[in-house]
Each structure stands twice: as structure tokens, then as C-alpha cells.
Amino acid sequence: MSKRVVTVPLQGGKVAVNPQFQDALKQIGLDPNAVVQRVQEELKKVGKYPVQKVEVEVVSPSKYEVKIYLPPIGDLLLKLFGKDTGAHDARNEVIGNLSFAQLVEIALLKKDELKSKTLKSAVKQLLSTCKAMGVTVDGRKAEEVLRDVDGGKYDEIINKFEKQWQQ
User: Fold this and answer.
1) d(CA 106, CA 70)
2) pTM for this entry
């Protein structure tokens, strides 16, 4: 059996079970209830972050993977803060604030898209986006936090999650 992809219908951040979705899963040999339960478990992992789409990649009836796609980082931040655009003057305007822990969490969730070799470089990439959009981190300008990351101030926090990044 070649790999098949079934898009999971979502409504309000939850699986919207409909007959077409159930039939598509049954045709592949999957139990729709088990798939829905697994998708819901995966959605819990992304918690409060908006989900762009969810797919079930099926290799065989006994082997499938749930893939959750978040919006691009800029859009993700805008949705988190309920904004339509980033700051018009990012040096002087703030559209929202993230904790450093949230920044690390987003980096881990977006790992496949960031293409960074280390969590530290992924965090730095996110900080650059925050800087351009007018997002502060722990109430401080992103460029200040970036300097602290380069200086090793956040190494303890980053190292705590590095194993998770390497998986």
C-alpha cells in the first residue's frame, strides 16, 4: 500500500467528524474512532496555539502518523495576540509579549519548519521574527534577549530542552 494522506476536518480547533472523513478512514482500513482519539491527543500537545491543518499519513492500516501544521511563525504570533498586522514601527510599538518559555515551546512545535540544527539557533530565529514584528519577550525588546541568548544567559533553559529538540 502506498502512503495515503487524509486531511482531518477541523472546527473550532477540534476534529469535525463527518461521514466523508469516516468513510475515507474506513476505506483505508482504519478505525475512525481510534484515529479521532489520537488526533485529539495530538491537538492537546499544541494547546493554545492555532492549528492550520491536520493530516493523517497512512502507510498501512496498522501504521499511521498524525501531522499537525501550525501557521507560519509570523501568522502564529499575530493570532496569539489577536492582531491583523505586526507593529508598524517595531522599534517603538509592541503588539504583544511572550515569555521565554513560550518562545522555546513555539520553537519545539515548529522544529521541522525552522531547519535549525540546535534549539538555541531556532530560538534566535524566532527572536528575529519577534524583533521585526514588535513582540517583546519577558517584557524586554527581542534584540536585548537575543544578546542575552548569545551571551549564554539562557543556556540553562535552552539546554533543558535540547534533548527534546534532538529527538
Assistant:
1) 10
2) 0.82
pLDDT in tens, 28-46: 899 999 999 999 999 998 8
73-166: CATH, from 1.10.1660.10, 1.10.10.250, 1.20.1260.10, 1.10.3860.10:
1.10.10.250
CA torsion through residues 37, 43, 44, 50, sign: negative
Q: What angle do CA 6, 12, 15 make, to 5 degrees?
A: 35
83 contacts 76 by C-beta, under 8 angstroms: no
The rounded distance, in Å, linking the Cα atoms of 83 and 71 is 14
Nearest CA to 78 out of 119, 129, 141, 10 is that of 129
Domain boundaries, the chain: 4-69, 73-166
**Are residues 122 and 107 in contact, defined by beta-carbon separation less than 8 angstroms?**
yes
What percent of the chain has pLDDT above 70?
A: 99
Q: What confidence tens digit (pLDDT) does each residue in 83-105 have?
A: 999 989 988 999 999 999 999 99
